[in-house]
Amino acid sequence: MPDDLLLRLRDFHEDYFPRHQQRFQDLVAQGQHPKTLFIGCSDSRLVPYLLTGAAPGELFLVRNVGAFVPPYDQSHGLHGTMAAIEFAVLGLKVERIIVCGHSHCGAIRTAYEGAPDEAVALKAWLRLADEALLPVQPSPEALCRTEQRAVVLQLMRLMDYPMVRRAVEAGHLTLHGWHYVIEQGEVHVFDAASGAFVPASESDHSGTGPYLPYVEHDGQVIE
Ligand SMILES: [Zn+2]
């Protein structure tokens, strides 16, 4: 039986890499300087590089089931997502954080329906969506709304990270909530002013976080 994965590794090395070799070598020589931290659901249908047109070196990625951000109080224990956020903001000094959920998210559905008893970590993890759940039967519409509410909930949790809040208030960092609708091939971006998700084709921005503008001592608002 041919080993498909091995063939793909060879394709990358023999086909893609030679055509982009200089870029990879520059990224090694100069280090990575991504401007964006992308927190996305692990779902295989969400492909951040396709959505954003990003090249190697442009996205610092952290993915988990549901695209969740654990609370900063560490009540959920050691967590790689927290470490990635700290590294991206304090070390890489990223200028944007995107939280990207999506349609037909298995994490959100499972948050309503319950995970198998053996999935101890998954059960605990999905409780991070509790505040986004609606007191209704999970219809397709309710699931969609919950997916979007979960994105906003993570943006709010991000603002509890002191280094995130500091950078946002200083105007060095922006937060972007996205809901990728797979069947439409379109990201809907969260607009904090209207409290709604707007299709990218109709939006005049790529998403705004749920934070208040920073106000200087003299009352001047920093945009
Ligand atoms: Zn998902």
TrEMBL record:
Catalytic activity field: hydrogencarbonate + H(+) = CO2 + H2O
Gene Ontology molecular-function annotations: carbonate dehydratase activity
Gene3D superfamilies on file: Carbonic anhydrase
This protein's record includes keyword Plastid: no
Enzyme Commission (EC) number: 4.2.1.1
First-level EC class: lyase
InterPro entries on file: Beta_CA_cladeB, Carbonic_anhydrase, Carbonic_anhydrase_CS, Carbonic_anhydrase_sf
Cofactor(s) in the UniProt record: Zn(2+)
UniProt keyword terms in alphabetical order: Lyase, Metal-binding, Zinc
Sequence similarity: Belongs to the beta-class carbonic anhydrase family.
Name under which the protein is recorded: Carbonic anhydrase
